[in-house]
Amino acid sequence: MRVKEVADLVGISVRTLHHYDEIGLLVPEKITETGYRLYSDDNVEVLQQILFFKELGFPLKKIKEIISSPSFNREEALELHRKMLLEKRSRLDKMIATIDKTIKHSRGEIQMSNKEKFEGFDFSHNPYEQEARERWGDKAVDEANAKIGKSKEEQEAMSDAMNAIYRKLATLRNDSPESEEAQAAIKEWFDFLNKMGNYSLDAFKGLGQMYVDDERFTKNIDQFGDGLAKFMCDAMAVYADKNKKQK
Fold it and tell me: How many domains does the chain contain in total?
């Protein structure tokens, strides 16, 4: 199949397929003398795998690493996709039910408790912990976890403080990341992170870059305001560079 046929079959743009080819994620079976990309059935199967990973929030760089690995097993990956999608569906079903109940509550048809208003939301686990362990090692993550309050009340207070900083930064996201207000707020974020772990200025700057490189982080942070992840990335880089010069 030619690139346009694949794009129409899947429902993605030709430009997306060109991009996947350019970064070596999905290279067509052959290119004709006239420059047409031709895709095989094997290419289509790989594309399906890529889009499953993408649906689950994996960044393209990580997808390429996974499917290029000699140990990659397509059937095992599909089983994992299925499990993760079922879990995602379960969470979404709960949230849809909560929305339906909230609509009825707003109309005065039923009464909802405060607890019922948040059914389906789950912030009790850290979806990035395993990735953090792979990036920085078990010791760093264990030390960070040890610094987090063990009681439920302490964990809730920590979560509230974190969300407050996100909300503050979200109100500044259309300003310059170099502004005095932005740098004061991003310092709060730096200080907060160092209550849980041990972040050098370089690590802080690297974390900010991850906010835009990893689609999962971007999506999570931008819930507080579109463009917040990019703003935080820029502000964190400014903060790190500025404070390294002062040392």
Answer: 3
**Maximum CA extent, the chain:** 68
Residues 152, 111: one domain? no
Tokens 């819930």 found at: 223
25 with 105, same domain: the answer is no
- Gap between the Cα atoms of 62 and 221, Å rounded: 20
Angle between helices 41-55 and 60-68 (to 10 degrees): 130
DSSP sequence for 157-222: HHHHHHHHHHHHHHHHTTS-TTSHHHHHHHHHHHHHHHHHS---HHHHHHHHHHHHHSHHHHHHHG
DSSP label of 228: H
Q: What is the mean pLDDT of residues 210-219?
A: 85
pTM over 0.85: no
Q: Which domain holds residue 101?
A: 74-118
What pLDDT shows up at residue 154?
A: 64
**187 and 215 belong to one structural domain:** yes
Are 159 and 209 within 8 A, CB to CB? no
First-to-last CA distance in the chain? Answer: 59
Distance CA 169, CA 163 (A): 10
Q: What is the pLDDT of residues 56-83, one digit of tens each?
A: 777 888 888 888 888 888 888 888 778 8
Cα separations (Å) of 239 from 44, 122, 141, 169?
A: 45, 32, 23, 14
Cα 95 from Cα 90, distance rounded (Å): 9
Please indicate, yes or no, if residue 123 is contained in any of the structural domains: no
